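The records we work with from here on pair a chain with its fold. Here is one such record, which you should read through line by line:
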Amino acid sequence: MTQLAGKVALVTGGSRGIGAAIARHLAAQGADVALTYRSGAQEAKSVVAEIESLGRRALAIQADSADAAQVRAAVDRSAAEFGRLDVLVNNAGIFPAKPFEEFTVEEIDNALHIHARAAFVAAQAAVAHMSEGGRIISIGSNLSERAIFDGLALYNLSKSALNGFTKALARELGPRGITVNLVQPGPTDTEMNPAGGGHASVQLGFNALGRFGSAEDIATAVTYLAGPGGRSISGATLTVDGGTNA
């Protein structure tokens, strides 16, 4: 019997990269999985097909994480379609990187909305459907604790908010039996940050293992926290970065 049998999960930004890997891993452990996407309809359809091939139910919902109303609606629809909600993974993200003087107020707001406000709003909506044993897991970044190259001011500002949010929400939801944790990927080979990309050599220069991780590495960590093994872990930050921040 798989460890998440009978559970329902929602993964935001689940059509590609780390989000898609998380959705697949949760399904492989028995969960029915809803995922959101902003524009990658075909990619989302492919992930849904993969999940269904495992014998699980799947649902793709178009929702822009910069829009609070769409975030709430996606959570509520997931719970309504599947009859419950046990796991929320706040994964949707962007990577704004340039000199901090060049960012517009609109770009600042967009990053904060996608990384911080969306996680807050999604959690608000999710707890209305969660019972004891619920899990809220956000995907942050190891860079929020160590800026290893220039241009990260906005990205780090918006991702760092998840650290404080995770601890405060874990304290508040603990009495309800709901855990709240943060997973911080480091150099991970994805479309957003390819192992052969322009910043790869800088990242590898700090990496103790000397290699990029995979999206599956992050998904494995999330799946552990979502399962029985994570029942006593809350308010924690799990950094999966090959020792980059060591």
